[in-house]
Amino acid sequence: MIDKNKLKSFLLQYGILIVIVLLKLGLQYALVNPTYDLHRDEYLHLDQAFHPAAGYISVPPFTSWVAGLIYLLGGGVFWIRFFPALFGALTLVFAWLTVETLGGKLAAKLLVSVSLLFSVYVRLNVLFQPNSFDILVWTMLFYLLIKYFQSRQDQWLYLAAVTAALGLYNKYTVMFLLVGLLIGILITYQRTLFEQKSFYKAAALCLLLFLPNIVWQITNDFPVLHHMEVLKQRQLININRADFLIDQIKYGVVGFVTVSAFWALLFSKVFRPYRFVGHTFLIVMLLFTLSRAKSYYTLGLFPVLFALGGVYLEQVFKKWKIVLFLVLAGMHVGAFFFAVRYLMPYQDPAQIVANPEPYENLDLLRWEDGKNHPLPQDFSDMLGWREMAGKALKGYHMIPENERERTMIFCDNYGQTGALNYYNRYKMPPANSFTADYIFWLPEHMEIKHILFVGELPEQEVLDLFKEFKLVGTVENEFAREKGTNIYLLLGAKESATEIFYREANERKNNLDIF
Predict the structure, then answer these.
(1) Does the residue 2 lie in any domain?
(2) Quick one: 158 and 306 in the same domain?
(3) What is the pLDDT of residues 467-501, one digit of tens each?
C-alpha cells in the first residue's frame, strides 16, 4: 500500500524541483540584453554541424552534435541559448539527486539549488560552448561514484564510464578530473574499487566509446597537443597562479557551504566514505594551478561540495535548519542580484563603458592578453557580428550574378567566418578561413575569380594578384572587438591566384599554422 505521507512529500519536493528548473531556464534568457549577438566561439560550434567528424582541431565533437540538433529545431537564437541553459538545469538536478543520495532533506536541497541558481554558473550557461556540459559531466560523475560506493552495484560504474566518454567527447579537461578521481580514490579505503573486475570493464567501455576520437587524433598526428601548446603560449601564459586561486573566492563558490563540506569530510564519520571527493578536489586544483588553467575550469568541482556541505549543515542545525537556510539563501541571492549586472551581458555596452569601476574591481575587464579593455572580453565578442554579416552580403551582391560562382568568401578569423555563415546561410556561399577548423573545410580547387574578403587589408603581394580592390564596408560598432574590421572586394584574379591560395592553405595545414 502506498504511504500517502511519503507520496505527498515526494510530489512536493519534485514539484519544487520542477519550479526551480523552470526558473533556471527563464533566468538564462532574461539576463541577456538583446543588444548582444552570439559569441564568436558559438558561430564556429554551429558551423561544425555541417561538417560531421570524429574530431576537430578546436574542440572534441560533442558540441557539433548539439549544433546539429539546434539546426534540426530551426537554428534560432532561442535554441542556441536553450541547450547550455538545459545543461545548467540538469547540473542542478544532479546536485539535488546527490543531496538525496547523501540523505539530505528539503532544506539541503534548496540550499544547493540556491547555490547553483544564483551564482557564476548562470554566466557560463548563457553561451553555447563546451563549458556547460562539462560541468554537468563532472557533477554526474561524482553522483554516480557516490551511488556506487553506497550500493556496490556495477551499473553505476558502467553509467560513469558512459558519462566519462561523453565528457571526453565534449572537453578534454575531463582528463584532469579522471586523474584526480583515480588518485583521490587510491588514497582512501575506497581503493578496493581497483580490485573489482567491474572497474576494468567500465574503463574498457569508456575507452571503447572514446576510440573513434583516439583514432582521429592518431591519424591527424595528435592536433590536441599542438592546440594545447598554442593555448599555453598565447593565453595561459598570461594567467597568474595566485589570481587563479583568488578567482575561486571571487566567483563565490568558496563560501560557507563549501567550507562546511570540507569540515564534514575531515571530521565527520558519516561523511568518511566520501573523502575521495575532497582528495580529488585538492589534486585537480593542484593540477590546474600548475598548468595555469583558466579560473572557470574548476567550476565542475563545486556542485558536489555544495551537496555535501548542505547535507552536513542540515544535520548539524536540525532545529535551526530553516533559519540557517533563510540566512544563507538570503545572503546568496542578495550577492547575486548585486553582481549579476556585471556577470551577465545584461547592461547595454554604453552603460558599462560609462561606469567601468565595478567591472574593474571584479577584474572583469582583463582579457586573455592580460590587459584591461572597455568591456569584458566575452561581452565584446558578442557585438558587431550581425552588422558585419549584413555588410558582407551587400558586398557580395555587388558582384555580377554570373560571376558569383567563382567568388571566394574569405575571412581573417573563425569568428568572422562563422558569423557570415550563420546570418547569411543560403543567401551566399559559405565563408572560408585559414583559421581553426575552417582550413579543413575549404572548397576543393575552386577556380578563384573574385574574393570577398573580411579582415585587415591584405598585403601588397596579395593585392597584386587582382586587377582591383575596393572597400565596401566597415564594422562600426564602437564596443565590438571587431570594430574597424573591413570588408573588401578583390576583383579580377590573375591565373596564378588560385594556385597560390591553395599552396598557402596546404602549407598552413601541414604546419598547423591555423590558430
Answers:
(1) no
(2) yes
(3) 998 999 999 998 899 999 999 999 998 989 899 88
